[in-house]
Amino acid sequence: MSYIVSITSQGQISIPAKIRRELGLDKKKKALVTVKEGNIVVEPVKDLLELRGSLKTTIKATRKQIRDAFETYLGKEAVKGIR
Question: From the first residue on, what is the mean pLDDT of each consecutive set of 10 residues in the chain (83 residues)?
Fold first, then answer.
């Protein structure tokens, strides 16, 4: 499925509702945007907090600390792919 979308003067695009529903994206979700072979690729990112309870640890962290650390990690991984 393909759609033509407009790009705003600030470089923003709107993802059509049908695609957002198919990918499970909503305004509270994050997406990873990369360039592969001259194409823009948008992938949904699982929220680390959705995995809560699946691993056992003695480390204590707040939800904000976990989210911030995960977003920092994703940013570093994305930059690696560009280099």
Answer: 92 91 83 91 77 75 88 87 70
Domain containing 57 equals 27-82
Whether the pTM exceeds 0.70: the reply is no
- The answer to the question of residue 6 being in a domain is no
42, 32, 43, 11: which is closest to 76 by C-alpha?
32
Kindly list the distances between the CA atom of residue 68 and the CA atoms of 36, 47, 64, in Å, as whole numbers in the listed order.
Answer: 26, 11, 6
The answer to whether position 42 is within a domain reads: yes
